C-alpha cells in the first residue's frame, strides 16, 4: 500500500517553487504521483494551484495575481493587481473613468519578464 501524501505540505512545497522531483523525494513519493496529485488538486481549485511558467528568461520574481478588465465604452483592456485590501467592485476605466461599462474578464497570474529575455525568446 502506498503512503499517503500530506496535501498541505505538498501545497506549501509547490508554492515555494521547488522542483517536482525534490518535492517527491521530500514527501517520499514519485515524480509522476506528485504531478498527478497536483493535476487533480488544480482541477478542484485552480486558483490555489497555479501553473508554473517555464521558459527561457523567466523572471526570478514571484508572479503577480491580477484581475483583467475590459471597458465596453472605450474598448480598452487593463489589469489591476490583486491585493486583499483592494476593493475590485469600485474598479473604474483608466480612460473614461466610468465604472458601469467595466467588465471583469478573468483572474490569473502575471509573470513579469525583462525586455531582453523577450527578445531572446523571439
Low-confidence stretches: 116-122
- List SSEs in N-to-C order: HHHEEEH
**What is the helix tally?**
4
Distance between the termini: 48 Å
CA radius of gyration = 19 Å
Beta-strand percentage range = 15-25%
Q: Into how many domains do the coordinates divide?
A: 2
Shape: elongated
Biggest sheet, strands in spatial order?
A: 2-1-3
Mind explaining what this structure looks like?
With 122 residues, the protein is an alpha+beta fold. It has two domains: 7-44; 64-121. Helices cover 32% and strands 19% of the residues. A three-stranded antiparallel β-sheet has the order 2-1-3, with no helix packed on it. Helix 2 packs across helix 3 (31-44). It is elongated, with a radius of gyration of 19 Å.
SSE topology sketch:
Blueprint: H1 7-16, H2 20-27, H3 31-44, E1 64-71, E2 76-81, E3 102-110, H4 115-121
Helix pairs in contact: 2-3
Write a concise keyword list for the protein shown above.
about 120 residues; alpha+beta; 4 helices; 3 strands
Concise account of the structure shown:
The chain has helices at residues 7-16, 20-27, 31-44, 115-121; strands spanning 64-71, 76-81, 102-110.
Amino acid at each position: 500500500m502506498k503512503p499517503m501524501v500530506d496535501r498541505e505540505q505538498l501545497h506549501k512545497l509547490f508554492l515555494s517553487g521547488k522542483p517536482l522531483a525534490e518535492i517527491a523525494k521530500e514527501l517520499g513519493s514519485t515524480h509522476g504521483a506528485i504531478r498527478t496529485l497536483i493535476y487533480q488538486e488544480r482541477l478542484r481549485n485552480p486558483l490555489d494551484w497555479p501553473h508554473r511558467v517555464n521558459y527561457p528568461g523567466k523572471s526570478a520574481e514571484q508572479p503577480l495575481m491580477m484581475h483583467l478588465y475590459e471597458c465596453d465604452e472605450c474598448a480598452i483592456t487593463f489589469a489591476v493587481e490583486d491585493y486583499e485590501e483592494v476593493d475590485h467592485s469600485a474598479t473604474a476605466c483608466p480612460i473614461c473613468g466610468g465604472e458601469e461599462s467595466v467588465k471583469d474578464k478573468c483572474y490569473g497570474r502575471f509573470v513579469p519578464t525583462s525586455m531582453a529575455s523577450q527578445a531572446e525568446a523571439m
